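Side project, low priority. Logging it here so it doesn't get lost.
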Amino acid sequence: MDQMPDALVAMRDVAISFGGIHAVDRVSIELNGGEVTALVGHNGAGKSTLVKILSGAYQHYAGTIFVGGKEVAIGNPRDAKAYGIETIHQSLALADNLDAAANLFLGRELRTRWGTLDDIAMEAEARKVMRRLSPHFERFKEPVKALSGGQRQSVAIARAILFDARFLIMDEPTAALGPQETAQVGEIIRQLKADGIGILLVSHDIHDVFDLADRICVMKNGRIVGTVRVADVTKDEVLGMIILGNCPPSAIPGPGASVATNEERGRQR
């Protein structure tokens, strides 16, 4: 892994528990700009809880978070946004009755000098950011409920980066999308990488993970099993990390993780 000062976002020994159960147990992870890190694991592995800590929805009781090498306090979602961390939830949280521009500026509307909504300026800005992400998008006058799944995802991503987000948390961005829309979202993610934006991709789809991610971080029972570069691992080896909690030789093990034996690696293949 890169050293902490070079990481865009770093979490060190972060922990949180609920009713005595360690949902996240001394987790350390480093996330870089211009890179997609996939966070994978079974339901209950701790992925959602870790993401909620980073997005400000939960407050950890132990550990430290760094942004740009500096220790920060993230006590709520507003703090996360202030540090350039935006979350795109699986539900997208769009206002279905509003058009793309209104969704992009929802809660942060532009106004004229007379105090009225500046619809022209907001649409112009919406067109600018959507052109960057999805050049063929033209349905600016329609409510987003009329858009396809891929187009709705584009609007949600555009809303996240409109206000200079440096890091995106994406929760199952291709869930329920068809192959063409999945490919469209993949192109947007690659564009965001090229722009230097860091992405934490939470996904259950191992094929999407291998198509989109640079690194994979596996969680199990609230802990990091290990982190590995996609180019250095097979899908079966990642599944072995998820199911058995064993790391292949190419992975950097988490605290207390075990490295798969030759016999175990043979069974995984």
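Brief comment: The longest helix spans residues 179-194.
Revisit when time allows.
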